[in-house]
Amino acid sequence: MQLLTDRFGRVHDYIRISVTDRCNLRCVYCMPDEGMTFLPHEQVLSKNEIVDFMKIMVGYGIKKVRITGGEPLLRTDIVDIIAGISALPEIEDIAVTTNAMYLVKKAEALKAAGLTRVNISLDSLQEDRFKTITRGGRLQKVLDGIAKAEEVGFFPIKLNVVLIKGQNDDEILDFLQFTKDKDINIRFIEYMPIGHAGDSWKKQYLSLETIFDACKEAGLAYQPVDSVRGNGPSENYRLEGAKGTFGLIHPVSSHFCASCNRLRLTADGYIKACLYWDEEMNIRPFIDDPQKLMDLVQKSIDNKPESHEMAIALQDEMQSHKPTTRRMSQIGG
After folding, report:
1. With a threshold of 0.70, does the pTM exceed it?
2. Is 263 within any annotated ligand binding site?
3. Which one of 25, 135, 165, 290 is CB 3.0 to 4.6 Å from 206, fit for a cystine?
4. Where does S-adenosyl-L-methionine bind (predicted)?
């Protein structure tokens, strides 16, 4: 089998597929509260286009899939998309990232369709603050979604916390406490400058060393663990006596580009080899031509830079490529 390998020797066996750029929330780090222009429905990849694309990709070693958005559960055919991909025998793992607003309603059908795992966004455990960060979300719906995910048997359940200075960094111990009685993985993620014009993000960026500082100040003992399924770039730890774990994802300060195995497909059909840079290629004209499609995907991988250089942006140094202007919701994270 020909594997998708770039000029730095990185084998790409993982793809994140955005199925919509729309979302029922407006998280402050993901999209602005107004002024967004969403894709017309006819420009969004159909279920058949996504599944046909994946039928080709699995022949080149892609075996892990994450369905993202926007909010993927807004798609009325999301269950059919999951079923179509999970039916491919080469696929070993298929997960979805969701804000969980509709998870109670759709969890059982998603499980039956072959979904194996869920990542749930949860940036505050305080109702009012959650509503502010998400610009209108309801915390209880997320908590109900987590309970439903446990009930139907998704495992592991991962909760994504984007740590934002001055907004939720005083809840670190509350999040850690959440792992005491639940077998879940809380993942603290650095605030990234994806699609942000200007430098305002730097004021809200916070190093994840803050997590360790909070543990030490509270007298909480923790140990590293390496057994979280699908842990990807996360460094994982467990508080002493806790059922669950917590992980740190440092895309900015301690990037994991050297081991990056990811491709991304946007909702309008563009393959992106790197989340941060603006280069992307339209695969849609070639879905019916496997050889030309794979030539395009390989070209995208061949052009993939060695590093995203977000840390250079943090230090106000000159970057080697042009950062993307797409917001996180338009790429799929």
Report:
1. yes
2. yes
3. 165
4. 29, 70, 121, 192
